[in-house]
User: Fold this.
Amino acid sequence: MRFLEAENLSKTYIRRVKPKDGGLSRLWKRDTQVINALQNASFSIDEGELVGLIGPNGAGKSTTVKLLTGILTPTGGTCRVDGRVPWLERREHVRHLGAVFGQRTQLWWDVPIHDSFLLLRDVYSLDKQAWQRRLDELVDALDLAEFLATPLRQLSLGQRMRAELCGSLLHQPRLLFLDEPTIGLDAVSKLKLRAFLKEENRQQGTTILLTTHDMEDMLALCQRVMVLGRGKLLYDGQLDALLRRYDTVHTLRCTFEGAVDLSALPAAIRQDRDGDAYALTFAPAEIPTGEVLSRVLSCGAIREMTLKEQNIDHLIARMYEEMKL
Amino acid sequence: MRYLYHAMRMNLKSIAQYRASFLMQNIAQFIMVGGEFLAVVVLMTRFSSAGQWRAEEIMFFWGTMQLTFALCECLGRGISTFAYYVGSGDFDTILLRPRPLMQQVVGHRLDPRRLGGMIVGAGAIAMACARLNIVWTLEKLGLTLIAALGGFFLILGLFLIEATVSFFSVRSIEMVNVLTYGGRTTCEYPVDIYPRPLRILFTWVAPFALSMHLPISHVLGKPLFDVPMALVWLAPLTGPVFFLLMTRVWYIGVKHYRSTGT
Assistant:
């Protein structure tokens, strides 16, 4: 048996809406509308995997996460995490679960974050020494030492996200859900956060499931992605296979100081000339962005450059087209 | 228990962050409830009695209700504002923690700003006692205490009705408040001054008469119902029983939430 197994997981909501026509009867008549938030999703995840869950808004990402965390009960199908059915064995299930939902905080807004961590020790009934050791580790890895006495509301977005992560990992969960962890963060914070998550996954063997719209998040973190669209699991597999299938490309536009010879660049980078500027197109699945940058930098002095990525929505749009959704 | 204690301390720390606001709101509460108190006093000096009750006796009933209700709003804030957490998604966070749900809901929010209301309530009781020359015995003290406790749980139970309804409907909550806030206002006065339908409502549906009025009427020496003393002591149990019953119903609501979500 795998660590997480979902079989034909489905969730339908019934929404009551006012009928469009009809005179006075609108006051009491209600039409029902069935919404398929998730349809027959089957997948499994092994312990220690880092999986990206992607898809446009309303695709069923949060429904999936809510089902797996046990917040919701499915209307069909079943799922087991570590042998437990989330919505039947809530307390035992959530004991080994961490979750950070982007917009929603689970720490206390007006008190120093250290106090929140103290309360979490009681919430999860953690041993005092083990808790302290783990807290020290996380505070160190997440650079939180100087904010421990600061109330959450006074922290910046990036600091807050780090505090949230610390809070969700204190009890050493085996499964961690992250909802858009890098949203709104600056470039440096993003890089640090990604590095931390990778390290956490490697060292603690924490299984991580994250939803994101950020292509770079996915490239940096997930080898495997699941793509959801209109409540259906459209793709489940390797990220680079998916990128190759839709040849996702990035374009690096740059101008150089003086003349430059780009003939040394590998064939994986397509070169186009546009006046003074060069447009270098490449597939990050084939050649990492960092490598392209260092190669280009070694060719000459750059005066100006921009990197444009084909975003995930573009990719999803093309998947939709193909799957005639 | 340890968790609950720490959760409450967290709430106090949060409030300590806004000391001026805390003070102002307590003063506001004090003035508001104090104003109501003055209205009662004015009414009572004008009419001097209601049914078999003297003004001072009415004041005793009024004070216990104020004190109990303010205590409920303070300690039961998590329950009385629960409908809001369903809307805001805070309840999802509660579901993600390995603690009994009701414990977390109660620990979620405290409201010590009700202190102002409690002071007025206690003041009204003290004033009534001084004027009535009640000879305090252990029995009378016990009866007053269980009246307050019975009322406390009864009101929490009533808060739970609204909390449960919020799982099923965003609106129609106002309807439910009739019993809670209507109950408080009505049952500030002993139930026997009201017409029969109200007496039945607050004896058998929202049993303020059994949990509060009956024991207090014995403290004041004017028994409300002709029942054996043992029953007088047992009657306030209707409060905790009502609360436990509503907790069960609330848990059914939780199941409904988890099968629909918001």
In short: The mean pLDDT of chain A is 87. DSSP finds ten helices and 13 strands in chain A. Residues 249-309 of chain A form a domain with the Alpha-Beta Plaits fold (CATH 3.30.70). The first strand of chain A starts at residue 4 and ends at 17.
